[in-house]
Design brief:
Layout lengths: L2 H24 L9 E8 L16 E9 L6 E3 L6 E4 L3 E5 L5 E4 L5 E2 L5 E2 L5 E7 L5 E6 L6 E2 L6 E3 L2 E2 L23 E8 L5 E10 L3 E9 L19 E2 L2 E2 L3 H8 L1 E4 L5 E8 L8 E7 L4 E6 L9 E8 L14 E3 L3 E2 L2 E6 L3 E5 L19 E5 L2 E5 L5 H10 L1 H7 L3 E7 L4 E6 L11 E2 L15 E3 L8 E8 L3 E2 L4 E2 L12 E2 L3 E5 L6 E4 L2 E2 L9 E3 L22 E4 L11 E2 L4 E2 L5 E8 L4 E6 L4 E7 L1 E3 L7 E4 L2 E3 L8 E3 L8 E4 L1 E3 L5 H33 L2
Parallel strand pairs: 12-42
Antiparallel strand pairs: 1-2, 3-53, 4-52, 5-6, 5-9, 5-48, 6-50, 7-8, 9-10, 9-47, 11-45, 12-44, 13-43, 14-15, 15-34, 16-22, 16-24, 16-26, 17-18, 19-20, 20-23, 21-22, 25-26, 27-31, 27-33, 28-29, 28-32, 30-31, 34-35, 34-38, 36-37, 38-39, 39-40, 41-42, 45-46, 46-47, 48-51, 49-50
Helix pairs in contact: 1-5
């Protein structure tokens, strides 16, 4: 009877299915395990020749394949960054170090004693190396081969800030001193690092330009005089100096920033020079008093932040014995400096009106009272006068009306009266600048010494100081740094436009509050903000200084203050400020990006890409052959592996600190277990029945 063999094949096939189901159940918690299923085929015997009826009973069943199900298992997160899971298709490639290559979905990796990333059975995870530019290198054993991060000297600083526009620069101390906080507007500090990883601080002080103009007075040498101002001359002063009309000095200074006197009978060299020869230095209000020989001039307020006037080099070759070198012998400074700093005047416009108390046509000579009643119109405010008032009474009444006058003219800062000179001053706010003449009228019997609308004197207003700051830099609050200030004229490197230690000037647009100028470079709307080069901020690097012969290749730190503003808000450093230096760091951890980069973290906050995980895909992954330890090997049926970084091609992305669990469905496997048991029992019953039938035949 063929039925015996048929039943045996059924029992054997059911046994195989029980084995497969049992293996699935046993590995339901195995990381990366892929379930298998048993596939069956029927058996029929066919005669080559003379086949009989097509109604053949069949010869049983056979196991045609034990197929693997490569669907993804559940990804569960862990506490180890070296636990990896592939979200999508693909396998990790492993090498045993002796040429054997296997593939796995089980990403339970760890570090061995040499820093290599290995599986639980000691096989090496494969990946690509990366060069400094992030380019892929050939496939290799992935390893954590960087245990420390070397220090890096600061090369770039981004410092975006806001300086409160409401700060009153007139309250600043007139002489800047880094140790006197009242002499600068605001200060901030940035931590930097030298080439050995030592931490330093660069402190930046910002001193807003005070609302003042620098004032200079020189005495011209008297005719026939050897020394200016000593009274030994004839009391007259020359109309020209070496052929240059004194009246023309203002125009020449404004145009050229200096005056040169060439060789002549008395002097071989003389130069009146403006420091830095900077066109931003604006000589203004130059006058000459021929009675006293005094030449006076001022610098505009914004020029005061840029540089000072200085006089250099006068060689006397006359035989009068003045000396070989008599500095400033032609122009002797009268009030050039106060304690080494230039004399100044407030930048407010001041219009002065004098009451003509001595004019008998206006004031009674006997008692000094006004002869005729009149009304004063000061900036639109009417002040009635009567004949009982003296000049002093009128002046006091004007001063008492100051608030009413200011209400109609809000740019006026103060109205003051000086009884000793019968003069009242209209003082304008510094920010008003050159405002023009305030309408002042006294009618037909005006009590002033000058005609209506004409002040006795008018000191020009100047608001060019607005938004102008001197920026100082100090290393560790001690050593002043070179921020790019131009070398002063007469010093080595001036012609080559070298720089030296000192402050640089930055300017904000007083209307919009945005940067308009940095160290002499005017900003174009929408253009890039020029960077400042800080020299001398790396004590560990002696070459971090200016090289006179290599001005275009300076080292140092590049300071970017783009985005800085002068708004009505607190003094703050805006978000996004940074510097790129750091100290030496030790390895504190390794993690993986979704795209496969192995990223090392160091204690100095730096990150470094150490490699790139390779993911293998196959044309027919069902053709892979299980090799144990949840690994597979490639076969002819699977084809060769195609290796790519995660997330490229057919490769899935990478999950760090995660593991792919077994894809076994226990409920489904238990049902299959019941089915396999039933099949086994049914085939056993076939054998039992056939045996009973056989026994019956034998008993006949």
């Amino acid at each position: 009877m063929a039925g015996f063999n048929t039943a045996v094949t059924g029992i054997k096939s059911a046994t195989t299915e029980l084995d497969v189901v049992g293996n699935n159940i046993a590995n339901s918690s195995t990381v990366g395990f892929k379930a298998s299923r048993t596939e069956f085929g029927d058996i029929y015997s066919n005669a080559v020749v003379g086949a009989g009826s097509s109604n053949v009973a069949g010869s049983g069943v056979t196991v045609t394949d034990i197929a693997q199900d490569f669907k993804s298992g559940t990804i569960e997160f862990t506490n180890s960054n070296l636990d990896l899971a592939i979200n999508g298709s693909g396998f990790f490639q492993l090498s045993d170090g002796q040429g054997g290559v296997t593939y796995t979905r089980a990403g339970s990796f760890e570090l061995d004693k040499d820093g290599f990333i290995v599986s639980k059975n000691g096989k090496y995870l494969q990946g690509y190396g990366l060069d400094a530019q992030g380019n892929q290198l050939p496939l290799r054993n992935m390893a954590v081969d960087q245990k420390e991060s070397p220090p890096h000297a600061t090369e770039n600083i981004a410092l975006s800030f806001n300086i409160d526009s409401a700060a009153d620069s007139s309250l600043l101390a007139p002489i800047y001193d880094k140790n006197n906080a009242s002499s600068f507007t605001w200060s901030t500090t940035v931590e930097t690092f030298d080439s050995l990883g030592n931490s330093h601080n660069i402190k930046f002080n910002f001193a807003e330009q005070r609302p003042v103009r620098e004032v200079y007075e020189y005495t011209v040498m008297e005719n026939d005089d050897a020394t200016a101002g000593d009274g030994n001359g004839d009391g007259t002063f020359p109309a020209t100096i070496s052929g240059i009309a004194i009246a023309d000095l203002a125009a020449q200074l404004t145009a050229d920033n200096h005056i040169d006197w060439g060789a002549n009978a008395t002097y071989t060299q003389y130069r009146l020079d403006l420091e830095q020869q900077d066109p931003r230095i604006d000589v203004d209000s130059m006058t000459f008093d021929p009675a006293t020989g005094t030449l006076s001039f001022e610098l505009k307020a914004d020029s005061s932040a840029t540089g000072d006037v200085r006089v250099v080099g006068l060689e006397d070759t006359d035989a009068d014995g003045i000396g070989d070198l008599a500095t400033q012998a032609v122009l002797v400074p009268n009030n050039l400096t106060i304690d080494g700093y230039p004399a100044t005047r407030d930048a407010n416009e001041v219009q002065s009106y004098t009451l003509d108390a001595a004019n008998a046509a206006i004031f009674d000579a006997a008692n000094g009272t006004l002869l005729a009643a009149t009304d004063l119109d000061i900036g639109g405010y009417l002040i009635p006068l009567d004949t009982s008032m003296t000049a002093d009474d009128i002046g006091q009444l004007i001063a008492d009306s100051a608030e009413s006058i200011k209400e109609l003219n809000p740019d006026i800062k103060a109205v003051q009266y000086d009884s000793s000179t019968n003069t009242f001053d209209i003082i304008w706010e510094e920010e008003s600048g050159d405002v023009g003449i305030l309408p002042v009228s006294g009618g037909a019997t005006s009590p002033f010494t000058t005609a209506d609308n004409t002040p006795a004197s008018n000191v020009k207003g100047d608001n060019s100081f607005m938004g102008v700051y001197r920026m100082y830099g100090y290393l560790n609050d001690d050593q002043q740094l070179n921020l790019g200030k131009r070398v002063d004229p007469g010093e080595a490197g001036f012609a080559a436009q070298n720089t030296e230690v000192g402050p640089v000037v930055i300017r904000f647009n007083p209307t919009t509050g945005v940067l308009s100028e940095v160290n002499g470079e005017t900003l174009i709307a929408g253009g890039a903000v020029p960077k400042l080069t800080i020299l001398g901020a790396d004590p560990a690097n002696p070459t971090d200084t200016i090289l006179e012969s290599d001005i275009d290749n300076l080292k140092g730190i590049q300071l970017d203050i783009a985005g800085s503003t002068q708004y009505r808000d607190a003094n703050i450093v805006k978000p996004g400020g940074s510097q790129d230096g750091y100290t030496k760091g030790d390895l504190i951890g390794v993690s993986f990006a979704e795209t496969g980069e192995m990223v090392a973290s160091f204690s100095n906050g730096q990150l470094m890409n150490l490699g790139l995980v390779a993911v293998a895909t196959f044309e027919n992954q069902s053709g892979l052959q299980p090799a144990g330890d949840t690994e597979w090997v490639a076969t002819l049926e699977s084809g060769q592996a195609s290796l790519n970084p995660p997330g490229t091609g057919l490769s899935g992305t990478l999950r760090s600190a995660a593991l792919e669990q077994s894809n076994v469905d226990l409920s489904e496997e238990l049902v299959k277990l019941i089915e396999a048991q039933r099949n086994y029992q049914a085939n056993s019953k076939t054998l039992e029945t056939l045996n009973t039938v056989t026994q019956s035949i034998l008993q006949i």
